[in-house]
Amino acid sequence: MFARPSRMPTSEEALPGRKDPIPTAEFHFISGLPLDAPVPPGMEEAIFGMGCFWGVERKFWRTEGVWLTMVGYAAGITPNPTYKETCTGLTGHNEVVRVIYDPEVVSYEALLKVFWEGHDPTQGNRQGNDVGTQYRSGIYTFTPAQAEAAKASRALYGEKLAAAGYGPITTEILPAPTFYFAEDYHQQYLAKNPDGYCGIGGTGVSCPIGLPEARA
């Protein structure tokens, strides 16, 4: 339905977007928590892009220690983009999931394990049949410690993938950009539509992040 360039747009090519945020859901469909809730004291946040954000969000809301999840667009150029605009490839944005979690229950390294094992990070601007820059693999970090952990995990998992016959990891690791909420119907989509399609899939290669041998 939409053109899907295989490269990021320049600022001159990018769609203009809009000043005001697009409407979205007020509350999380499963927990009932407000989606714009501030990060509670003691909790932390993370942003991941790993293909279709419907399935990615489900992976994280099912993870013990995750308090709140929401889907949106990030790491591009266009302010307050819509889904249709993002699908053109002319916003530069990635489909991402913002995760608020309790580090006393689930570590950032454990979230990285969910990330690496939940998709194929060697595919570039695609995941399976979903093709476009909005499906690229990305980790967007909020602290130096997150950035260090993400880069270390990329190196370690890259070795595991290479041993299994996969190519180089294409995952971008960047400081957390502005997060723009996706539309209401995208939030917790697979809870509302259990039979919905989502093209993400892992490699079957286990990620040792967070396990004792990974720290040795």
Automatic annotation (TrEMBL):
PANTHER family: MITOCHONDRIAL PEPTIDE METHIONINE SULFOXIDE REDUCTASE. Belongs to the MsrA Met sulfoxide reductase family. This is Peptide methionine sulfoxide reductase MsrA. It comes from the Bacteria. It comes from Albidovulum sediminicola. Has an important function as a repair enzyme for proteins that have been inactivated by oxidation. Catalyzes the reversible oxidation-reduction of methionine sulfoxide in proteins to methionine. The keyword Oxidoreductase applies. The keyword Membrane does not apply. The active site is at C52. Keywords: Oxidoreductase. Its EC number is 1.8.4.11. It holds the Pfam family PMSR. The gene is msrA. NCBIfam families: msrA. Residues 45-198 form the Peptide methionine sulphoxide reductase MsrA domain. It catalyses: [thioredoxin]-disulfide + L-methionine + H2O = L-methionine (S)-S-oxide + [thioredoxin]-dithiol; L-methionyl-[protein] + [thioredoxin]-disulfide + H2O = L-methionyl-(S)-S-oxide-[protein] + [thioredoxin]-dithiol.
